[in-house]
Specification:
The protein has 370 residues and is mainly α. The chain folds into 2 domains: 217 residues; 141 residues, Arc Repressor Mutant, subunit A (Orthogonal Bundle), CATH 1.10.10. Helices cover 72% and strands 0% of the residues. It is built from 18 helices and no strands. Helix 4 packs antiparallel against helix 6. The radius of gyration is 26 Å and the shape is elongated. The termini are far apart.
Length: 370
Amino acid sequence: MTSELNSLIIIIIYGSLTILSFLTLANPLKVNKKANFWFGIFTSLWATFWIEEIVQLVFIDTICDSLAMFVSFVQYFTPIIFYFSVLFFTNPNYKFKIHDLKYLFLPIIYLTVLIAQKYCYKEYSGTLTLILSGLILVQTLLYTTLSYIKIRKHKKKIVLFASNIKGIDLCWLEYIIFIVLIISIVVSIYNIFFKLSALNLFMNSFFLITVFFVSYYSMKQKEIFPLDEEDRNDIIAINDGEHLTEMRRKIIPDEELSTLKSQLNQLMQNQKPYLDSELNLIKLSQILNLTPHQLSYLINYGFNENFFHFINRYRVEKAKELLKAEKLNKYSILGIAYESGFNSKTSFNTTFKKMTNQTPSEFKKKSSDS
């Protein structure tokens, strides 16, 4: 019974990853196109880790040594491909250059050891297996670390142009990094000590839950950068720090900066653009007839804030008004969040507490008591 259940789970895992790979590559929502191309390849490679068990279930046999070696070599690229997807999630304008051939260094070493194990030094198979497992761990640790660093930098940069970062902060990829890292370590250790055994029921159940988690969040993706090429290039330039040089040149004279500050304050108070949950640097710069770089300079140097903090400060003040209003007691916290320009209860609670040192519910209770 346990064996049959384990076989069923393996089939579901392989099928789910194959379908997820197809959906991600097809990308019906047309979001983050280049990133999802690489993420789709990543999920298809991930599915190959169960190919041997699937072959045994279908053909009641094992795959030949040459094919097994090829599959093992292809699987070795999984962390690299994941890193490529992160590169494009954080910068859709990224282009491969000749120096990117460095990514082939470890795979070539891995392939060399793999060939030596299969065809040249079979008497040292045990030692070479340990080396291969070590190379897998090195590859995984290297690229999960690089991916994590990229995502952390991305989180710091998106506050320069986005007012609501939930859905574009790539937290779901961050979770995948931790999961993949744990899985890779567990699988490597498992293969060392249980070379001829299939993964057990418990481990495959854990993998299945992980696959569902990845599927859920990959299907909920939002477009991170503007679709318009010129706008996207402006945002990426700001993200890459190119605007810092312009800021040092004082792209807006001090006397004009003061005037623009007044105009921006007046705009925020009268037109209330912050109530648009999708407001970003591009949209606001168009309203003010400024370039994104000029608006970024204005907010950074005129108000000593980043774009995210500047816009959400107004949203929090609006939320305070709504929380205090007795006639709006029938509104839920989520309703007030939406009315204030936030796009989720989570981001509302997090931002509100960060700016006021209390949750919206705590603020409402204290306001009612006073």
